[in-house]
Amino acid sequence: MKKEIGLASLIAIAASAGMALAQEGERPVQYGISADLQQKVDGNYIFVLNDEIPANRVRGVVRRMAARAGVKVGHIYEHSIKGFSAKMPAETAAAMEEDPMVSYYTHDGVAFLSDTEVGTAATGDVSAQAQSTPWGITRVGGPADGSNLGKYAFVIDTGIDMDHPDLNVATSLSRNFVSGLSSPEDQNGHGTHVAGTIAALDNGIGVVGVAAGAKVVAVRVLNAQGNGSFADIIAGVDYVAQVGLAGEVANMSLGGPANSALDNAVRNAAAKGIFFSLAAGNEAQNANNVSPARTNAANVYTISAHDSQDRFASFSNFGNPPIDCADPGVNIQSTWLNGSYNTISGTSMAAPHAAGIFLINNGTAFSGGVVSGDPDGNPDPICHL
């Protein structure tokens, strides 16, 4: 008999709960990012306005504040948080915080993909590749038929291969939020991989997803290298909060240093009834150090990774809360760029398994056992259809 997992019953006190959290606003050295991206986030700030300001007044308030300070606004946020991003000197940011309209502000920062290794993508005629079911899909009880759900899965990531023959992409809803780019087309492969695990078609070729054939929406917030700014990522979350409906899902297989603005954006979007599946991260540390993984709220689920033997993945972040359950994240095959397929690992691969489950089951998961070797001493349950 499978046991239903509710958010409250999944959360236990982590053995590592005493670990120190990353200090909000610290600017750790960022590795593996371009000089352009580092320049983009340096001196960029995210301002959150008082919630009492009506949503239809946010744009006017932001423009007046920016004009007074002599700064150019980047993004304006209206649906998940109320606020904006803008580049300015530190002293200008500190002065703007004194405005009675402002609740708080944070530094911008860089988030990264939550995968650990990249294999070799399959190439050639995809129509000639007979369909197989990846081990992770089987382990969580899939595939299930998602083709007639009438609901969307939003992939907040590097974009999606928009014409992949094994995906049902809602092109009209797909958007790009990476400054300087215009297309939601995936230039990395990661977002396409996530989309395939959620919803690859049961069409006789390639692979099949948990919610096979469900419509996926590309919400591009990361560049071709798989990195992005918190300001851009919040803009993607804000879009999902605007157009998403209760019962739909959003997957975020990305993470970076602690950031309250991003956490609150996810929390508020989820309060609209949208289920968020968040990768726990791959630093083998307490997930409470990472945003958005540390977000702990109704309709928000943080997912750790396990291998095909149900062993806790050595790279996966841990800690209950915020982690709610584990799902397959080691050697996961899924869709990739140019109509191809790839096998990679990470909590990035675990989160979309859970997203597919939540899409099919309207936010409910069942226990498919527990992982072994969880470093916090509280074995994570395995989310199952």
TrEMBL record:
<feature type="active site" description="Charge relay system">
    <location>
        <position position="157"/>
    </location>
</feature>
<dbReference type="InterPro" id="IPR015500">
    <property type="entry name" value="Peptidase_S8_subtilisin-rel"/>
</dbReference>
<dbReference type="InterPro" id="IPR036852">
    <property type="entry name" value="Peptidase_S8/S53_dom_sf"/>
</dbReference>
<keyword id="KW-0732">Signal</keyword>
<dbReference type="InterPro" id="IPR000209">
    <property type="entry name" value="Peptidase_S8/S53_dom"/>
</dbReference>
<keyword id="KW-0378">Hydrolase</keyword>
<dbReference type="GO" id="GO:0004252">
    <property type="term" value="F:serine-type endopeptidase activity"/>
</dbReference>
<keyword id="KW-0645">Protease</keyword>
<dbReference type="Pfam" id="PF00082">
    <property type="entry name" value="Peptidase_S8"/>
</dbReference>
<dbReference type="InterPro" id="IPR050131">
    <property type="entry name" value="Peptidase_S8_subtilisin-like"/>
</dbReference>
<keyword id="KW-0720">Serine protease</keyword>
<protein>
    <submittedName>
        <fullName>Uncharacterized protein</fullName>
    </submittedName>
</protein>
<dbReference type="InterPro" id="IPR023828">
    <property type="entry name" value="Peptidase_S8_Ser-AS"/>
</dbReference>
<feature type="domain" description="Inhibitor I9">
    <location>
        <begin position="67"/>
        <end position="108"/>
    </location>
</feature>
<feature type="domain" description="Peptidase S8/S53">
    <location>
        <begin position="155"/>
        <end position="358"/>
    </location>
</feature>
<feature type="active site" description="Charge relay system">
    <location>
        <position position="190"/>
    </location>
</feature>
<feature type="signal peptide">
    <location>
        <begin position="1"/>
        <end position="22"/>
    </location>
</feature>
<dbReference type="GO" id="GO:0006508">
    <property type="term" value="P:proteolysis"/>
</dbReference>
<dbReference type="GO" id="GO:0005615">
    <property type="term" value="C:extracellular space"/>
</dbReference>
<dbReference type="InterPro" id="IPR037045">
    <property type="entry name" value="S8pro/Inhibitor_I9_sf"/>
</dbReference>
<dbReference type="InterPro" id="IPR010259">
    <property type="entry name" value="S8pro/Inhibitor_I9"/>
</dbReference>
<feature type="active site" description="Charge relay system">
    <location>
        <position position="348"/>
    </location>
</feature>
<dbReference type="InterPro" id="IPR022398">
    <property type="entry name" value="Peptidase_S8_His-AS"/>
</dbReference>
<comment type="similarity">
    <text>Belongs to the peptidase S8 family.</text>
</comment>
<dbReference type="Pfam" id="PF05922">
    <property type="entry name" value="Inhibitor_I9"/>
</dbReference>
